């Protein structure tokens, strides 16, 4: 984008990758083909985020509620994650740090291992931070943070009065990441669906009817431009 310098680029963007099933249905393809195409878009858009100067991007890939989908679809999505992690060279080339958020204890041990390996391999990459939410739920994340803090209180490391918003934030899966500035949800749905509910308390929202596999870098630029033109007041005047 030529007018990049004048843009107020969001520091942290959250993206809900929605519409893969409908994309496939429109083409009379099985739903898993939509997810496969969605995974390609994930790679393209991650690169585009870095190019725009976004510092953190968090993607909603699989929610704590998505287990309710047909077993073959869940397996296809899990296979996509594993396959992707086997060939995740593009992040190294791009100097992008990749981490996962969510409750990974319910995932296949082989997938958990690959996630840990990729996190380790990319821990010193510093061009951009990318979080991929797998078996993630915002309420589950807050519950997890509260449990961690309760353990500290029980051990006598802190008193209940010392619990503040900052401590709760630091015990979320996103840890040191700053609050979310912009949430992008394609595919025409107008809801947050339990995604980053704590982190996006003051986020701006960008909705579009475009289905995720059709979402292009130009659509990302449009979302960032819309964000940049908004007046954020954080409760002030
Ligand atoms: C929501 O669309 C999408 C998902 C539940 C899965 C998202 C997963 C991917 C894009 C694969 C990501 C892979 C990597 C490697 C990051 P939907 O199925 O609910 O679409 P619909 O609302 O049209 O049915």
Short description:
By secondary structure, the chain is α/β, with parallel strands linked by helices. The chain is 42% helix and 15% strand. 34% of the residues are buried.
Q: Terminal Cα separation, in Å?
A: 31 Å
Low-confidence runs of at least 5 consecutive residues: none
- Give the tally of structural domains: 1
> Structural class given helices, strands, pairing?
alpha/beta
Give the integer mean of the pLDDT values.
Answer: 95
CATH architecture assignment:
3-Layer(aba) Sandwich
Largest beta-sheet details: 6 strands, parallel
Output the radius of gyration.
Answer: 18 Å
CATH superfamily grouping: Decaprenyl diphosphate synthase-like
Order of strands, widest sheet: 3-4-2-1-5-6
Q: What string, H for helix and E for strand, traces the elements in order? A: EHHEHHEHEHHEEH
Strand content: 15-25%
**Contiguous helical run count:** 8
CATH topology: Undecaprenyl pyrophosphate synthetase
Helix content: 40-55%
Shape call: globular
